[in-house]
Design goal:
This protein is 32% helix and 25% strand. It is of the alpha+beta class. The protein folds into 2 domains: 103 residues, OB fold (Dihydrolipoamide Acetyltransferase, E2P) (Beta Barrel); 317 residues, BirA Bifunctional Protein, domain 2 (2-Layer Sandwich). The chain binds 4-amino-1,4-dioxobutan-2-aminium adenosine-5'-monophosphate. 4-amino-1,4-dioxobutan-2-aminium adenosine-5'-monophosphate binds next to β11, β15, β16 and α15.
Length: 453
């Protein structure tokens, strides 16, 4: 086993200077001058590669035959050599190669080459695109963002709960679920129709009635037939649920979470974020820093409708009180009007889910969506209806089968308390953090209508 990773070497550069070490990795780049060849090696431990310097003079230690092999991107090698300070950056390390062993040759048709390839093309080779700088950076930010989410909730006393992925109900009541069947089983496997979860919320509410403050972070599945750059059939959602909390309280949590996770990702992934800033969205880091340091806007749905009506814009979907906000409306509010993240609150009852707390006006519910510039809706949440009779009435008004929701209704029978929660689309947050404009480029193997590579 190779003891030293490239990241170890970079971290402890002063210790390793002058020592002979062995590192393993894949060739990411190769260039040469008359006397010297330069090889960029990466083992995945560091976003930035390690430069290997190869002398080509007469008494060269590396044979021309080996050089001919390592010229090809993607070849896996073990390099032994002496660690020195990098020529162009004394804070970085590089290795003067003494021996290079080819571990795995790379066929000539390797599609990841120096020439920049389009994201569209890379989507056709998800198993290989992961080796590009863009996807290595994305996976590293994905990891950092996951940890930032856990840190945020754990530091505030929220318990991480695992809600079932196979469920009997359709949490959102929107009928966009995938059915689960066992074709070889004689009869009905579960004894009832089963589907993949569209949200862990209803079960998270159960746990919140025992542990008070909880969050989930796991995969969700939606059979939405919307072929957009913001929708996929399988995505990860972070859902928070807090007992004894009203809408204002949960908005505070959602805002603090967004700011906290931005700060942590900027702090833990400076190289990756500089890369996205450079190649995907100029000014990205400054924009995120500003969002982390400043207040978010909050607007009542009714006022948002007035703003849209006064905008003088020709929208494809006409605006009037009672309509659900479409992407074009959300984008106007965030990108042109507020120019920062905005919580829209108190939506019309009829465009939102059955479980949302009904406001006294009899027309609206205590719901909120967080809209952010460039992406649109990133969070959906609400105070929950805690009154048994009102909840049943809301279900009946939507022609839902009340019998299927016994568990959920029990929560309103036994010690019901005001409680609220929200769901953050993890991949939409990644889009915002990286400037990547197609949600398919935030995942390893995106699943969407007609897509299962
Ligand atoms: O607004 P949604 O549907 O809310 C819920 O599911 C609630 N049960 C959450 C809660 O209150 N606990 O979804 C939450 C977020 C959206 O704001 C969006 O960011 C993301 O999930 N999302 C999707 N992301 C990618 N592809 C899809 N098809 C998505 N559908 C929703």
């Amino acid at each position: 086993m190779i003891e030293i990773t490239i990241q170890n070497l970079k971290d402890k550069k002063d210790y390793y200077i002058g020592k002979t070490v062995q590192v393993a990795g894949w060739v990411k780049n190769f260039r040469e001058s008359k006397t010297t060849s330069f090889l960029e090696l990466n083992d995945g431990s560091s976003f930035k590669p390690l430069q290997i310097v190869i002398q080509k003079e007469e008494n060269a230690k590396i044979s021309q035959d080996t050089l001919n092999h390592v010229m090809h991107l993607g070849v896996a090698v073990i390099v032994s050599g002496v660690v020195v300070s990098a020529y162009h950056n004394v804070n970085d390390a590089e290795i003067n190669a003494e021996k290079i062993t080819i571990i795995g040759d790379c066929a000539a048709d390797y599609p990841i080459q120096k020439k920049k390839t389009s994201l569209d093309f890379l989507r056709t080779i998800p198993h290989l695109r992961i080796r590009t700088n863009t996807f290595m950076a994305m996976m590293r930010v994905r990891n950092a963002l996951s940890m930032a989410i856990h840190h945020f909730f754990q530091e505030r006393g929220y318990f991480y709960v695992h809600t079932p992925l196979i469920t009997g109900g359709d949490a959102e009541g929107a009928g966009e679920s995938f059915q689960v069947v066992a074709p070889d089983y004689q009869g009905d496997f579960f004894g009832a129709p089963a589907s993949l979860t569209v949200s862990g919320q209803l079960e998270a509410e159960e746990v919140a009635m025992a542990l008070g403050r909880v969050y989930t972070f796991g995969p969700t599945f939606r059979a939405e037939n919307s072929n957009t750059t913001r929708h996929v059939a399988e995505f990860w959602m972070v859902e928070a649920e807090a007992a004894f909390t009203k809408l204002d309280g949960i908005i505070d949590v959602a805002r603090d979470m967004i700011k906290s996770i931005i700060r942590e990702v900027l702090a833990t992934c400076p190289d990756e974020m500089a890369f996205f800033d450079n190649f995907y969205e100029k000014g990205l880091v400054a924009k995120l820093q500003e969002v982390a340091d400043n207040a978010f806007a909050e607007v009542d749905y009714t006022e948002a409708i007035e703003i849209l009506q006064k905008s003088g814009k020709e929208f494809k979907y006409p605006v009037s009180w009672g309509v659900d906000l479409q992407t074009e409306h959300e984008r106007y509010l965030t990108d042109e009007y507020f120019k920062k993240p905005v919580f829209v609150v108190n939506y019309p009852r009829d465009v939102k889910a059955f479980y949302m707390k009904q406001n006294e006006d009899g027309k609206t519910v205590a719901a909120t969506d967080l809209l952010i510039p460039g992406v649109g809706e990133i969070i959906g949440g609400s105070e929950r209806e805690a009154d048994y009779d009102k909840l049943v009435a809301a279900m009946q008004a939507r022609s839902m089968k009340v019998d299927n929701y016994h568990n959920y209704l029990d929560l309103r029978k036994y010690g019901s308390v005001p409680h609220s929660g929200f769901g953050l689309g993890f991949e939409r947050m990644l889009m915002y953090l990286t400037g990547i404009t197609n949600i398919r480029d935030t995942q390893l193997h995106p699943r969407a209508v007609g897509e299962l590579r």
